[in-house]
Specification:
Helix content of chain C: 55-70%
Largest sheet of chain C: 2 strands, antiparallel
Number of strands of chain A: 22
Number of domains of chain A: 3
Strand order of the largest sheet of chain C: 1-2
CATH architecture of the largest domain in chain A: 3-Layer(aba) Sandwich
Largest interface: B-C, 49 and 48 residues
Number of strands of chain C: 2
Strand order of the largest sheet of chain A: 6-7-8-3-9-10
Largest sheet of chain A: 6 strands, mixed
Strand content of chain A: 15-25%
Shape of chain A: globular
Oligomer: heterotrimer
Number of helices of chain C: 16
CATH topology of the largest domain in chain A: Rossmann fold
Structural class of chain A: alpha/beta
CATH class of the largest domain in chain A: Alpha Beta
Number of helices of chain A: 18
Structural class of chain C: mainly alpha
Chains: A alpha/beta (535), B mainly alpha (322), C mainly alpha (376)
Helix content of chain A: 25-40%
CATH superfamily of the largest domain in chain A: P-loop containing nucleotide triphosphate hydrolases
Distance between the termini of chain A: 52 Å
Order of helices and strands of chain C: HEHHHHHHHHHHHHHHHE
């Protein structure tokens, strides 16, 4: 086996330390934030240990310290009972600790084998890849991680890329695997597959740290749980069995969480957005949408579920005029909006919350004022005869700042200095304030903490009650289930089916159906095969 | 006008572009665009020439040129890698700075007279090959022959070796390389240095082999910029860079030589009888650079490939989804 | 000895820490940093002059005296600053959109060519009124520059061709083009220059009014300065107070956000490159019509386009700041002509730009010396 740096099982010393990893009193400060405040963490051999916490609770920081990417300000790390100091990720890897980041650390233009060999001392100079291809295929077989070693990363699915990441760490002889939100990008069935891989690894003596904020996964896979809240430990290594979701949520958030948002019944109105048989290409020129037909009515939230990269991004862009539609049509209140300009949609009351707040939704070095007028700077009274009425724009920005609780000293502050939640409020304020008839919201809560998520959800529901038609594109099934009136499922650019959501706790059969559709089984086929179907 | 002689001289002229282009390819592959090639070449040409005058040893001249240009490239490295400044502006600044320095230090050099140049020789057997022999293997400077070796060598290095793989990774996805313990900052400093060294070598090739002497800014006459353009045409591939460089070298020689003879292909030579038309000939290399850029950019758009993904983006540890 | 160890242990607790800024620095901070960078650059330049065998203090004193010593040289400084002002404005608007137009040099030359063509093609008789001549020359100059800006803009918008290299290549082509005309067509008695323009094609100068106000005698400051100041004010309004300027700023900061806001990037690429070219072209016109009074390569292709890049950057792309900074650089170039070795002004410009870019780091990060012992 190729385990160049670390003996997998050190000499069988009689007194094996009880912990593979022991972190004591870890403190890590960032400018303005105390990310880890004397955190203790213990990992036993062969266990799956869940690390739970909201966004910004300090889980990723703690694990980046363990993986050698950050150095702690104070505190001790012990590996197999021996104190260590990591000054680089390489040190951590040499000590048997491998981290699998949420955003995969894979070079898209290189092959699987090249990615796995990256940074290793062997081969020394000349790359004879074919020799290593077979080694890697063999290692994959051992853990049930089959993937073609010669394939380029960009050709692989997200699930396969994750396997490459795991292989990369196993190849380096990792004993401890840190997985940062590994299920975020997977469909329910793929998640099951990942879980069985994790179990087979612990059976072979590996230990796993599983970072998540999804409560149901933790009760499903973890042996023990450590919960972080605002940089502090609120539960240390408690057995996962026996903890309810409500208890975990309390530990994580520190107050009772209302799982079911109050969704008032709203009379569904006319069809506002009508998408008919839309085809479009992605950035690489490959077909991303192959005949999508959906509609959204006034006063309803329609969810679009699907694993990332199945055409959601492209669909939102086609609707808003940012992408060419090769075939088919999109109507907004009966008027064609496909293949028109972005302005055409804006002028007809189309609001858009893009997926990527910092790279698409805002101009980071421009002020809050400049950012809130982004989609209405052409309209009177802000613009007159091609000139901007800046005093009015500033007044308008201050009004939004008040109404939407944007925390910023002054509206002339560049938005790059705003936190994620504040930035999202700037975008929401801008998009909602025009009382849109129709809104596309793509991943509106990604990366926000629980409080901020709740705020976004309330705003979306308020829009629904005001009679707006909302298309909500999200990878968080839970979010879709709690907000939507109907859900479409997209897979490889095709709609697999549509389900209605009744108020109340969704039953498992419905989730299973959606999961099957997310992995490419059309609804009719599921119905034929006799799976219980709702809607 | 003997076409073989023009092409023979063209290969030598093209070697200048070849060195500069390959150096810039290596720097850009690591994610750092250095627009200061023109300035670094001037530094190289000036320091090679003045060292050779002072010591009489052209080898030492080439060495000093490479070191000096490599050293000055580290200003750009510091500003863009450590201080994370915009690579375009920093590259322009480096051009101004090194042009200025080479003018100051090269003061009076143009009147220095002749120096001993790099050795010129023919390759015994290869020079006997018809057509190719006289063009590629006859009476060339040793630097030209070094260029022939450099092309396959750099291609092999980038695509088939471990450090080359690391180089590509750093330019495509530095965070991934960093997470596996590859020192992104050190790699980028290193390849910016290599780019500088190669630009210095290119400059030395002008002043000690191709057109000996020091003619202040006219020594390079925009060849550094043409090299930056060729990198795009070459799609960051040394072999394509070689094709482009030698073609441009041949073009430059053709422009110089075409005005000489009274007859051209049996017709009266218009460039001989209307010497002012020479100004239009002078435009050609620059116009061709633009055309070649269009070709390269269109190809990149069509194939949806192109620059290393992280080109021009400073790497800041801890960002990018960590 | 013991003292020394004690000092060391105390120093050991102090570390330099670099942190990203989380709030905006006060308004006085950025200019202070720029001035600091400028001073540092002059010191570094002095060291290099010393190394090259010159006398830095005398060089700088000479620059100050030769450019601001009396009203006459101040006027000369302003004359030198006028073309820089125009090219810097040209660069600033393109850079604002992150369009790296480094072809202001070529656009300047083509502007000079266009304006000269009005005179030299003799479409107008030499006794035509100034009121006809000057506006026509301005239009032709701006058109010449705009065309030269249009080419890289079009290639960028249509084929995504790197505008840095294409605009730079056009500089060389512009020089060869003008050379062709002054050698082959408009040559004056075989010299490499055109004949002098008729007086009606000259921009009014201060010295022209010496009959009424004797104090103005000999002052060559011409109306180009007015064009420049007017252009700067208008440009400021366009950038910060107009919808178009808003679009330009948006594209410059985040093109994806601009697309999302419905801004047409290709169209703006073309328009901004043409505006940039037209401004540089107007500079070329004002130089031939106000200063050189004939078409000649050497005084026109004198690197104003490149100095404009540095001035635009030093002014943080602010059109009003450009007015003052270009006067500083006018002084440097004017006085620099007599400094030995002759490359010194160029070198100092390079050092200034390097220091400026480096100093931007201090705007984004703060460097603190912290006492790690106290942090517990």
């Amino acid at each position: 086996m190729a385990q160049p740096n670390l003996p997998n099982n050190p000499d069988p010393s009689p007194a094996q330390p009880p912990f593979v990893v022991e972190m004591r009193g870890i403190v890590k400060r960032f400018p303005g934030v105390l990310a880890n405040d004397h955190v203790d963490f213990e990992l036993r051999p062969g266990e799956i240990h869940a690390l739970l916490g909201e966004n910004g609770a300090g889980k990723s920081t703690l694990m980046n310290v363990l993986a050698g990417l950050y150095r702690q300000d104070s505190g001790v790390i012990k590996i197999n009972g021996v104190p260590v100091t990591f000054s680089s990720p390489r040190d951590a890897i040499n000590a048997g600790i491998g981290m699998i980041h949420q955003h995969f650390m894979l070079v898209p233009s290189q092959t699987v084998t090249e990615n796995i060999l990256l940074g290793l001392d062997n081969p020394r100079f000349i790359l004879n890849l074919s020799r290593y291809d077979s080694k890697i295929a063999e290692l994959g077989k051992q853990f049930g991680l089959e993937v073609d070693p010669r394939a380029k990363i960009w050709q692989l699915s997200v699930g396969e890329q994750q396997r490459v990441e795991i292989l990369k760490m196993l190849y380096r002889g990792a004993n401890v695997l840190i997985m940062d939100e590994p299920t975020a990008v997977l469909a329910p069935q793929e998640i099951e597959g990942l879980f069985s891989i994790l179990r087979s690894m612990t059976a072979q003596g590996k230990s796993i740290i599983f970072i998540s904020h999804k409560l149901n996964e933790i009760t499903a896979i973890a042996d023990r749980v450590t919960v972080l809240r605002r940089g502090k430990v609120t539960a240390a290594g408690q057995p996962a069995r026996g903890l309810t979701r409500q208890q975990l949520a309390n530990l994580m958030v520190g107050r009772d969480v209302i799982f079911n948002l109050e969704k008032k019944p709203v009379q569904r109105g006319e069809v506002v957005l009508d998408i008919q048989d839309v085809h479009a290409d992605n950035d690489k020129g490959l077909p991303a949408l192959r005949g999508v037909s959906i509609n959204v009515c006034a006063g309803e939230i329609v969810g679009l579920a699907g694993v990332a990269g199945n055409g959601q991004r492209e669909l939102s862009q086609v609707i808003t005029g940012l992408r060419k539609c090769k075939q088919g049509r999109i109507y907004l209140n009966g008027e064609t909006v496909s293949n028109r300009s972005v302005i055409f949609g804006i002028q007809r009351g189309m609001a858009y919350i893009p997926e990527d707040r910092t790279h698409v939704g805002t101009a980071p070095n421009l002020s809050v004022t400049d950012n809130v007028i982004m989609r209405k700077y052409r309209q009177s009274p802000i613009s007159q005869y091609g000139l901007l009425n800046m005093p009015l724009a500033v007044k308008y920005a201050n009004e939004l700042k008040q109404a939407y609780d944007i925390i910023v000293p002054h509206v002339s502050t560049p938005v790059r200095l705003l936190s994620g939640g504040n930035l999202q409020r700037v975008i929401l304020a801008r998009e909602i304030s025009g009382q849109p008839q129709f809104m596309v919201a793509v991943q509106p809560t990604r990366g926000l903490d629980v409080g901020a998520i709740e705020g976004v959800h309330r705003l979306l529901l308020a829009q629904r009650e005001a009679g707006a038609a909302i298309l909500l594109i999200s990878e968080e099934l839970e979010e879709l289930l709690s907000l939507s009136d109907r859900i479409y499922v997209i897979y490889e650019g095709k709609i697999m089916g549509e389900v209605k959501i009744e108020p109340g706790e969704p039953d498992p059969g419905l989730i299973e159906t959606i999961g099957l559709m997310m992995t490419g089984t059309p609804l009719e086929q599921i119905e034929q095969q006799g799976v219980r179907v709702h809607g | 006008m003997d076409l073989i002689i023009v092409l023979q001289a063209g290969v030598a002229t093209g070697t200048v572009l070849l060195f500069a282009t390959i150096g810039e390819i290596l720097a850009e592959r690591s994610g750092v665009m250095n627009l200061g090639v023109e300035g670094m070449m001037l530094i190289g040409a000036m320091s090679a020439f003045s060292t050779t005058i002072a010591t009489g040893n052209p080898w030492l001249g080439v060495l000093v040129a490479m070191l000096f240009a490599g050293l000055i490239s580290q200003i750009h490295a510091f500003i863009t890698i450590t201080l994370q400044a915009d690579q375009v502006v920093s590259g322009l600044a480096l051009t101004f700075l090194s042009t200025g320095i080479s003018l100051v230090l090269g003061e009076g050099l143009s009147k220095a007279g002749t120096v001993s140049l790099m050795p010129v020789f023919s390759i015994p057997v290869l020079s006997q090959i018809p057509i190719l022999g006289p063009i590629f293997f006859t009476r060339h400077s040793i630097l030209v022959y070094f260029g022939y070796i450099l092309v396959p060598l750099s291609w092999y290095y980038i695509n088939r070796t471990r450090p080359g793989m690391h180089l590509r990774a750093v330019g495509e996805y530095p965070a991934a390389a960093d997470a596996l313990g590859i020192n992104v900052f050190r790699m980028r400093y290193l390849y910016v240095f290599v780019g500088g060294v190669m630009a210095g070598l290119a400059g030395a090739t002008i002043s000690l082999a191709v057109s000996p002497g020091w003619f202040s800014e006219l020594t390079t006459a925009g060849q550094g910029w043409i090299a930056v353009g060729l990198v795009i045409f070459a799609q960051w591939d040394p072999v394509r860079a070689a094709v482009g460089s030698y073609a441009f070298g041949a073009l430059r020689r053709l422009i110089l030589d075409i005005q000489g003879p009274t007859m051209l292909f049996g017709f009266a030579n218009p460039f001989y009888y209307n010497p002012y038309w020479g100004f239009f000939l002078q435009m050609l290399p620059y116009a061709f650079t633009v055309i070649v850029l269009v070709i390269g950019s269109r190809e990149a758009m069509r194939k949806r490939i192109g620059a290393p993904a992280a080109l021009g983006v400073p790497y800041i540890r801890g960002e990018r989804g960590l | 000895m013991a003292e020394k160890t004690k000092l060391f242990t105390r120093i050991k607790f102090y570390r330099i820490r670099i942190e990203p800024r989380l709030s905006e620095p006060p308004a006085w901070y950025p200019p202070l940093i720029s001035v600091g960078a400028l001073i540092l650059a002059l010191i570094l330049g002095g060291i290099l002059i010393k190394l090259a065998g010159g006398d830095p203090i005398r060089s700088y004193a000479h620059i100050a005296k030769a450019s601001f010593g009396n009203i006459g040289v101040i006027s000369d400084t302003i004359v030198k600053a006028t073309p820089i002002l125009m090219t810097a404005l040209a660069c600033s608007i393109a850079f604002r959109m992150k369009l790296w137009n480094i072809g202001a040099e070529g656009q300047f030359i083509m502007g000079a060519f266009g304006a000269s063509a009005i005179v030299l093609t003799k479409v107008l008789p030499p006794e035509t009124s100034r009121w006809v001549f000057i506006p026509l020359m301005m239009l032709a100059g701006m058109a010449g520059g705009a065309i030269w800006g249009f080419i890289p803009g079009y290639l960028k918008a249509k084929f995504n061709v790197n505008e840095i290299i294409s605009s730079l290549m056009l500089n060389y082509i512009a020089v060869a083009w003008v050379n062709f005309w002054i050698f082959a067509v408009w040559t004056e008695a075989g010299f490499q220059m055109s004949p002098k323009f008729p007086l009606n094609a000259w921009l009014p100068r201060l010295t022209d009014y010496a009959q009424n106000i004797p104090a103005l005698s000999g002052l060559t400051t011409h109306m180009g300065l007015l064009f420049g100041i007017l252009a700067a004010v208008i440009l400021w309004l366009v950038v910060f107070r107009s919808c178009w300027g808003y679009e330009i700023r948006l594209i410059g900061d985040n093109p994806q956000a601009a697309r999302y806001a419905g801004v047409n990037i290709a169209k703006n690429t073309l328009l901004v490159m043409m505006l940039s070219g037209a401004l540089a072209g107007l500079g070329g016109m004002s130089e031939v019509s106000g200063m050189v009074h004939r078409l000649q390569t050497a005084p026109i292709a004198a690197g104003y386009g490149f100095t404009g890049i540095i001035v635009a950057w030093l002014s943080k792309l602010n059109p009003l700041a450009i007015i003052f900074v270009s006067i500083l650089f006018g002084a440097l170039i004017l006085a620099g002509r007599e400094i030995q070795p002759s490359g010194v002004p160029k070198m100092i410009q390079g050092i200034i730009l390097v220091c400026l870019i480096a100093s931007d780091f201090l705007l984004r990060y703060r460097v603190r010396i912290v006492n790690t012992a106290e942090e517990k």
